[in-house]
Amino acid sequence: YGSMAGLVKRNPAFSELNAEDIRYFEGILGEKNVIQDDERLMTANTDWMRKYKGSSKLMLLPKSTEEVSQILKYCNSRCLAVVPQGGNTGLVGGSVPVFDEVIINLSSMNNIISFDKVSGILVCEAGCILENLIAFLDNEGFIMPLDLGAKGSCQIGGNISTNAGGLRLLRYGSLHGTVLGLEAVLANGNVLDILGTLRKDNTGYDLKHLFIGSEGSLGIVTKVSILTPPKLSSVNVAFLACKDYDSCQRLLQDAKRKLGEILSAFEFLDSQAMDLVLHHLEGVRNPLPPSRHNFYLLIETTGSDESNDKQKLEAFLLRSLENGLISDGVLAQDINQASSFWRIREGIPEALLKAGAVYKYDLSIPVEKMYNLVEEMQDRLGNVAKTVAYGHLGDGNLHLNVSSPQYDDKILAQIEPFVYEWTSKYRGSISAEHGLGLMKANEILYSKSVETVQLMASIKKLLDPREILNPYKVLPQSLISAC
Ligand code: FAD
Ligand code: MLT
Ligand code: ZN
């Protein structure tokens, strides 16, 4: 494990759990929803990357908003710190305790409340797993406006709390646009009902936005209302190779113009990312053999006219081959081939995990500068560790990962603060879509001004004066004084 508690000190103002607390929770939730069993706690204390590990002695599984409210009211009065947890797929150490915080996991709140076929508005509980919502909507002829590799485990409440971006943001925009309302329980147990289903509502401040991307630091999201697009009949996926990064950028510009309204994803990976996937994931093969290319792109189009859309994409690919922007390419002939292309792109995080230790950076950087950072990092690291780059090129979002067999402070010192300083120099974001969590709570000033962060701290104090909600995360500890 990477060091965790080493980064911060336990706030002594927080109480320690006692037998009376357990009895109280058993009283409201029932014994089986009060988890003290070592094995389950071990899983809930450990993040997806197995990099961050807490030592919580208790996980609570509420089944309703009312139960979440009772839990928080009690924890607030006792000054017991808590960590809201969804699918625990977060990548910044935000979803697991740092010390002995009580884990409140939303997985038992997984009901779909309503779906309106005319408007496409879905209302559901926060613990619904993204893949289950995708399957439910598929039956109704709709899709979720977001999709990500962690869909099998992540929950919509977790997606909203991290403002997850993912593979479809290019087309459907961020959750700040598609989430129409939500219900959240505040630190003192009060229930904030802003579960609207309106597209337009300008009555005062739009408070739902505070909870989108606040990583469980301002309240626990319990219900969600989200606008879902109709499922269109023609989806095409192409897997392409480019000789250099400049061609990738030019292809993106072209794709936006020539594919226009049907473009639904524009993802990239470099050759190191491809090598890693081929090496570590079973059954994955490079669709563009035999030579190794420097860059690969996955382009998806989604539209309503099967023959037109396909023709459009084919013409685009042909032109790009002729003018040399792509050196090779293949268009998926069926849904299985399309899934195999997506598997390459979505499988990269898993392949990195199998390769050993991984230092993950999730950056927004102007597209034309993006790969310069990767090359500079390669130069800094030499043979000590591998850089692996991929991401949502269409959104200006680079995932720069450094992979080595083991964690090593010398490698870390080569990466940080260099990567943050570089990003800040180009006014980029040190967290494009994963959030700050524990990993980057102290780095926020690379992307936000002091005044902005102070206002954030005031909002945190207003909503959670005893700072029981996900302590040590998101904002620097020095700005907040608890209990
Ligand atoms: P968790 O990991 O459990 O929690 C994440 C944060 O949200 C924590 O701070 C937690 O305290 C808080 N939280 C969770 N539920 C609630 C709630 N109901 N109320 C309040 N706070 C809550 N992210 C992207 O943006 N784009 C991607 O493409 C993407 N791909 C991924 C692929 C893989 C393979 C993996 C492992 C992760 C990926 N992620 C991606 C990161 C992660 O999946 C997302 O951040 C996801 O949205 C987290 O959801 P979760 O339910 O697992 O939340
Ligand atoms: C992705 O786009 O694959 C995710 O954000 C996960 C990651 O960055 O590794
Ligand atoms: Zn991503």
Blueprint (SSEs and pairs):
Blueprint: H1 19-29, E1 34-35, H2 38-45, E2 59-60, H3 65-78, E3 82-85, E4 102-105, E5 112-116, E6 121-125, H4 130-140, H5 156-162, H6 169-172, H7 175-178, E7 179-185, E8 191-194, H8 208-211, E9 220-227, E10 234-242, H9 245-258, E11 263-270, H10 271-280, E12 295-303, H11 306-322, E13 328-331, H12 335-346, H13 348-355, E14 357-364, H14 367-381, E15 386-392, E16 397-404, H15 409-415, H16 418-425, H17 450-463
Parallel strand pairs: 2-4, 3-4
Antiparallel strand pairs: 1-2, 5-6, 6-9, 7-8, 7-9, 10-12, 10-13, 11-12, 11-15, 14-16, 15-16
Helix pairs in contact: 10-13
Bound molecules: flavin-adenine dinucleotide, D-malate and zinc ion (ZN).
Short description:
With 483 residues, the protein is an alpha+beta fold. It has 17 helices and 16 strands. The mean pLDDT is 96.
Shape: globular
The CATH class of the largest domain, by name, is Alpha Beta
Structural class determined from secondary elements: alpha+beta
Number of helices: 17
**What ligands does this structure carry?**
flavin-adenine dinucleotide, D-malate, zinc ion
Which percent bin holds the helix content? 25-40%
Biggest sheet, open or closed, and with what strands and sense? 7 strands, antiparallel
CATH topology of the largest domain: Uridine Diphospho-n-acetylenolpyruvylglucosamine Reductase, domain 3
EC number: 1.1.99.39
Organism: Quillaja saponaria (Soap bark tree)
Catalytic activity: (R)-2-hydroxyglutarate + A = 2-oxoglutarate + AH2
Enzyme class: oxidoreductase
